[in-house]
Amino acid sequence: MSGRFKAACIQLSSGREAEPNTLAASTLIRRARAEGADLIMTPEVSDMMEPTRALRVAKAKDEASHAMLAAFRDLAREIGAWLLLGSAVVRREDGDERLANRSFLIAPDGAIAARYDKIHMFDVELAGGESYRESNAFRPGEAAVLAQLPWGMLGMTVCYDLRFPQLYRALAQAGADFLSIPSAFTLPTGRAHWHVLMRARAIENGAFVFAPAQWGEHAQGRKTYGHSLIVAPWGDILAEAEDGTGYIIAEIDPAAVAEARGSVPALRHDRPYAAPRRKPGSLAAQ
After folding, report:
1. Which CATH architecture has domain 5-261?
2. What is the pTM of this model?
3. Which residues belong to the active site?
């Protein structure tokens, strides 16, 4: 790791069409870069929050024809910064009718430095009647991804991955200094769990957490929590977004990773153990 840098998280309120979402994101990215941000990240599904499955499939593009991805690659070259397109709805190349919820790390020369497909699908029934079945629309990813930044290693994840600490443990033990968690957290779960889970992932892995988030009311009444966060390895919140669209920015000292891991060297203390037997009727056995 070398040198301090500035990280920015963009907070969006994406609608159903990619073009206005791209314009809104690009405007905020330019503002963050003008303030000195070197790494600028956008939320999950930055390109579109389309609730209707048939319309989502019809609007989805593959990488070669994805307008927001192309715009972000041009923008990275224009402003000379690292960009994380938190995720976009992408048509898969293998012909699977399910789409990919894919995160892209874009280098300052416009090259795609890394891709990550969201592994964990949000299939839940929430109190109040909200229902989500991501696995009906998206094919889960199958691989964890590390990406090299000038200041250290980035572990790439997306939203609901947050609830699976073993993924972050594996990323940290493989060398991740920073964890990106672009999200579109629902309002009820965000109010209850957002801050504590983000801080926990930072603390237990001694890593910086970057969490750009969707905010506000979207099509068909879906509401997202916002509160984009930048969290230090000791669990301190370095920056937090208020309600509304905009961005947060913080200076990142990569040396804080080694300091936190030196103070609590838990990453070196993991031990193998026999798993408990699953009891009949338990959730894990189903």
Report:
1. 4-Layer Sandwich (3.60)
2. 0.95
3. 44, 118, 159
